[in-house]
């Protein structure tokens, strides 16, 4: 037997245990904390998720003797936790549990995710929560519940603690460097607002958003255009998304963030494009900057066609303007220069339709993300020809029938 001393749910204790006893058995059998469930005993299912020194861990693959001097928190310790109260209410409202066996681990992992990452899209939540399995299953309700709480908390708190891109079990290999020590402790110390009613936030259905696109202007080799749209979302929620490149890029059809942004705002990304028989991908790098005082962001980038000699240089500056407590206008100034064979698609008529189509898709996705819904990007995450052609035809028909 080996003597260990540690703190469990705020209570200091000393105990004797065998070197081979894992923490889940130690908690359940010697401490009577049966809220920590044991499923796979291989660190796969996540039912045994607990907190060790403020970071979530698998209790079934953690030896109790390895936790000498640590602070352990199990699901029983979160009864009065403000964020956990919200999650429990959302899990109930969204029918996010059936047998309940996975629920303690799901709740602890979800609380950790919200603290680390803030507002995410539905696919991102699914990816981040993929280490917790539900056999009944309540996955759809679980994702809806987490999304609901993310939106509520985003409206009421400052910028969330960001993750480091690690998609394995949280907190990841560099979490100590990425997360300030103060944030590894109890979320109650941050005095989060009290839980609201379970029915206080209802996810809205997908809706069309009118996008106003200005005339195409040619300035030397650069094509310029302005664009604006209104989303029925509070400016705090919209601005939180617009300042998060990891949230903005997925709203753009065909765009994928490959790396970053770094501390200096630099990032790498690619854009998949399909126009009739032409299928190409522009890949490159850029820089992201923000002005909180003006509620304005700027993205500059350049890329090359992976399958040909075409290249593009572009920038977009967008800003958020509060219209009311529940309405925000987003304005954008767009400029780009396209060279190579694909420059033939730079004709003003085509560009106007393309920019309008992209803007409408972006606006819908931004609105969906702000409401906690999944983005509605085109199939295969590419900017496709069918939807673009339809957009061009309806635009042409509208102009034809409204001429005086």
Summarize this, please?
With 404 residues, this protein is an alpha+beta fold.
Features:
10 helices, DNA polymerase, domain 1, 404 residues, alpha+beta, 5-stranded mixed beta sheet, 26% strand, 9-stranded antiparallel beta sheet
Percentage of residues in helical conformation: 25-40%
CATH topology of the largest domain: Alpha-D-Glucose-1,6-Bisphosphate, Chain A, domain 4
The number of distinct helices, counting runs of at least 4 residues, comes to 10
What oligomeric assembly is this protein in?
Answer: single chain
Shape: elongated
From the coordinates shown, what is the CATH architecture of the largest domain? 2-Layer Sandwich
- Overall mean pLDDT: 79
Number of domains: 3
Considering the protein shown, what is the CATH homologous superfamily of the largest domain?
A: START domain
Number of strands: 14
End-to-end separation: 92 Å
3D architecture notes:
The chain has helices at 23-31, 82-93, 103-117, 122-128, 139-156, 175-178, 235-242, 245-248, 348-370, 385-401, and strands at 2-8, 11-17, 49-52, 55-58, 71-73, 211-213, 217-219, 222-231, 255-259, 266-275, 278-291, 296-305, 311-324, 327-339. Strand 11 and strand 12 (296-305) form a beta hairpin. Strands 6, 7, 8, 9, 10, 11, 12, 13 and 14 form a 9-stranded antiparallel beta sheet that branches. It has a 5-stranded mixed beta sheet with strand order 2-1-5-3-4, with helices on one face. Helix 2 (82-93) crosses helix 3 (103-117). With 404 residues, the protein is of the alpha+beta class. It is 29% helix and 26% strand. The chain has 3 domains: 2-77, Beta-grasp domain (Ubiquitin-like (UB roll)), CATH 3.10.20.30; 80-190, Orthogonal Bundle (DNA polymerase, domain 1); 211-401, Alpha-D-Glucose-1,6-Bisphosphate, Chain A, domain 4, CATH 3.30.530. The protein is elongated, with a radius of gyration of 25 Å.
């Amino acid at each position: 037997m080996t003597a260990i001393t540690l703190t469990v749910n705020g209570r200091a204790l000393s105990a004797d245990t065998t070197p081979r006893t894992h923490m889940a058995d130690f908690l359940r059998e010697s401490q009577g904390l049966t809220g920590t469930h044991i499923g796979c005993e291989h660190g796969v299912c996540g039912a045994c998720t607990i907190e060790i020194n403020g970071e979530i861990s698998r209790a079934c693959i953690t030896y109790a003797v390895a936790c000498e001097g640590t602070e352990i928190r199990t699901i029983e310790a979160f009864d009065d936790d403000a964020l956990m109260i919200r999650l429990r209410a959302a899990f109930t409202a969204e029918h996010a549990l059936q047998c309940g066996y996975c629920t303690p681990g799901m709740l602890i992992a979800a609380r950790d995710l919200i603290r680390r990452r803030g507002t995410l899209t539905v696919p991102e939540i699914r990816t981040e929560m993929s280490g917790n399995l539900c056999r009944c299953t309540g996955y759809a309700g679980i994702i809806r519940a987490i999304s609901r709480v993310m939106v509520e908390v985003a409206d009421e708190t400052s910028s969330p603690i960001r993750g480091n891109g690690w998609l394995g079990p949280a907190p990841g290999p560099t979490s100590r460097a990425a997360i300030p020590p103060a944030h590894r402790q109890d979320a109650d110390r941050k005095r989060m607002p009290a839980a609201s009613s379970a029915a206080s936030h209802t996810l809205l259905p997908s809706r069309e958003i009118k996008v106003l696109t200005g005339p195409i202007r040619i300035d030397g080799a650069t094509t310029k255009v302005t664009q604006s749209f209104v989303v029925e979302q509070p400016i705090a929620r919209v601005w939180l998304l617009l300042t998060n490149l990891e949230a903005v890029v997925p709203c753009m059809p065909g765009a994928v963030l490959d790396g970053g942004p770094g501390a200096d705002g630099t990032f790498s990304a690619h854009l998949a494009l399909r126009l009739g028989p032409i299928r190409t991908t522009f890949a490159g790098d850029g820089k992201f900057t923000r002005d909180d005082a003006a509620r304005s962001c700027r993205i500059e980038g350049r890329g090359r066609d992976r399958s040909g000699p075409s290249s593009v240089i572009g920038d977009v500056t967008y800003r958020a303007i509060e219209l009311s407590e529940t309405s925000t206008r987003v304005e954008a100034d767009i400029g780009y220069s396209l060279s190579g064979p694909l420059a033939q698609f730079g004709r003003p008529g085509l560009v106007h339709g393309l920019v309008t189509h992209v803007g409408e898709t972006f606006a819908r996705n931004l609105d969906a993300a702000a409401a906690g819904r999944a983005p509605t990007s085109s199939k295969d995450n590419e900017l496709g020809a069918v939807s673009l052609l339809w957009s061009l035809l309806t635009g042409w028909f509208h102009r034809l029938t409204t001429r005086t």
